[in-house]
Design goal:
The chain has three helices and eight strands. The protein is α+β, with helices and mostly antiparallel strands. The strands form two sheets. Strands 1-8-5-6 form a four-stranded mixed β-sheet, with no helix packed on it. Helix 1 (about 1-15) packs parallel to helix 3 (about 30-35). The protein is globular and about 35 Å long. The chain starts with a helix and ends in a 5-residue tail after the last strand.
Length: about 140
């Protein structure tokens, strides 16, 4: 049982595909890592199943970016009443020129900022992976 656990842990650490363990489990983790042709890629900034998430309670369409490093490279539109559940890690929210958005931020783990209400002015606003942002309805 211990050998199976060690093989599974080595497989996870190596990034090798799961099929590699079944082909020759006696060869060890070094062989598995060297045979893997699949690149190890992060889950779009998510940590496990936790991703930056936005709920749009306003009637307006909101622009969000999925890539803070290239804000304009991956913009999606979040319509009033929608949320980004299942989209992956949302990295930012855009507030249009001349607008202010009232948001509530819930930091689930490490909390880069305190939970609570914020007023966001025009421009892009970063969302951390552990944050849920609730865009409030300006009409109450």
């Amino acid at each position: 049982m211990g050998a199976i656990l060690l093989t599974a842990l080595a497989l996870l650490a190596s990034g090798a595909p799961a099929s590699a363990a079944a082909t020759d489990p006696g060869r060890g983790s070094d062989a598995l890592a060297s045979e893997s042709a699949d690149p190890v890629t992060p889950l779009g900034g998510c940590i496990g199943t936790m991703c930056g998430l936005v709920y749009n309670y306003s009637p307006d369409t909101i622009s969000v970016t999925m890539d803070w490093g290239n804000i304009n490279g991956n913009i999606r539109y979040l319509y009033g009443g929608q949320n980004t559940q299942g989209w992956g890690d949302v990295d930012g929210v855009h507030v249009g020129p001349g607008l202010t958005r009232r948001v509530y931020i819930d930091s689930r783990l490490w909390g880069g900022r305190d939970d609570g209400y914020y007023n966001w002015g025009p421009g892009w606003h970063k969302i951390e992976t552990d944050e849920i942002v609730y865009i409030q309805n300006p009409n109450g």
